């Protein structure tokens, strides 16, 4: 498989997971959480490089840990303040790890904004697992996740547990975001989620169709960003961030 | 200790971080009460594009961060809708577009000047290498902003706690909201120059969230919050200065110490109240 094909495949898998997660992010109004959780990948990757364990282990460990902490702090009154502090904590720990490993200046840009052309063929199986499993699990959880977002009280009455749904959702979100980091960077995976998710929520009024539309839009956005980056030699993150804003603005033209 | 205080970069850092901490401490109180932590974070992220642009074109970092922060306020105001859910969406989309631009400008910095520390300086702060003149400007702007904030504090507090009551009593709620966002843009600009654009939120939210748990009364809470921010910043600078001797050849970033102190205060306040 040629090198460009590998990158293209990796970006597509990441986009599928991010698009699916993004649809639920918009429905559950978890925009800030979706911005904070991908930051877990920053200390995750830095810890892997400092202590010498595999990159994927660092990403997954910090992603799941971050999701757990976020689920805990969200049960307190001031949700957005607690989320902001978690975000700062993750980034500061990452900065410390990078600094101690001696790769501070060189690695900051890649981890925050992505280095898609640094991926190798060895990364593909892991990305494939995430790219297939995250949308599948979200699709299976469509009903409980919608119910717990739209009416947690009703779910409680029916004997369900909204906080379990929340924890599972955050864990899937963190995994989808964490593994997207080599492609889009910790900061811009959020755009790949929110832009298509928000546009899909405006354009469709059925959950199933919205989920599929969000994934399709994310795929289109990732392909366009990758193609433009390849042609222009500008960073993928720039086209992802600006493209997500364009997708969202176009969807907003449609009257509610 | 004398060597510490006589060093030029340390003096600049103390001044700059002091101005940022005092202003952000007071602004943070309103930010938390208004539930605008995400908007504040988005403004800081958008301002990072200005910081990167300043590096690329050799302009003053203060001016770069500030211009983009103010442009961010304008964009937020345009995208703003009445539904609270769409408010978060709009802030998130704006933040993504701003960071995308930062990615491009930093990429051009790295490619053109070979400045490998550019990303680190913009995102995680470079207060020791700020030009000394900027620190004086920062103090001046922070002082002016605090005066304006004190002037509008009463109606702003009412509008933050009970918007409908404020409307009925004739307060210009929308105008106050915009003025507050403009002050917030200045506050996160100073914080971005101190601890970096993506950590600015810590300086804005950390002290205020701690103070709201410990102190009653808005004036006391604002003062306490500003004092906590100042303690964390100056404590962080002292620790970073001391850390040069800890592990030979490896430095501990000053932003890490500041954020760690802020989080420590917050955790202590939470645990202390529960006990």
Radius of gyration of CA atoms of chain A, rounded to a whole number: 18 Å
What is the CATH architecture assignment of chain B? Orthogonal Bundle
The helix content of chain A is: over 70%
Beta-strand content of chain A: under 5%
CATH class of chain A: Mainly Alpha
Parts with pLDDT < 50 across at least 5 consecutive residues of chain B: none
> Can you summarize the main beta sheet of chain B?
none
Structure description:
Chain A has 256 residues and is mostly helical. Chain A has one domain (3-252): ABC transporter involved in vitamin B12 uptake, BtuC (Orthogonal Bundle). Chain A is built from twelve helices and no strands. Chain A has helices spanning 3-27, 31-36, 41-51, 55-73, 79-101, 104-113, 124-140, 142-150, 152-157, 162-203, 207-232, 236-252. The model of chain A has no long low-confidence stretch (mean pLDDT 83). Chain B has a single domain, classed as ABC transporter involved in vitamin B12 uptake, BtuC. Chain B has helices spanning 2-6, 8-34, 37-57, 61-79, 84-113, 118-124, 132-161, 163-168, 173-195, 200-214, 218-242, 254-274. At the A-B interface, helix 2, helix 5, helix 6, helix 10 and helix 12 of A face helix 3, helix 5, helix 6, helix 10 and helix 12 of B.
Short description:
The complex is a heterodimer of chains A (256) and B (275). Chain A is mainly α and 256 residues long.
Features:
heterodimer; A: 256 residues; mainly alpha; ABC transporter involved in vitamin B12 uptake, BtuC; 12 helices; 0% strand; globular; B: 275 residues; 83% helix
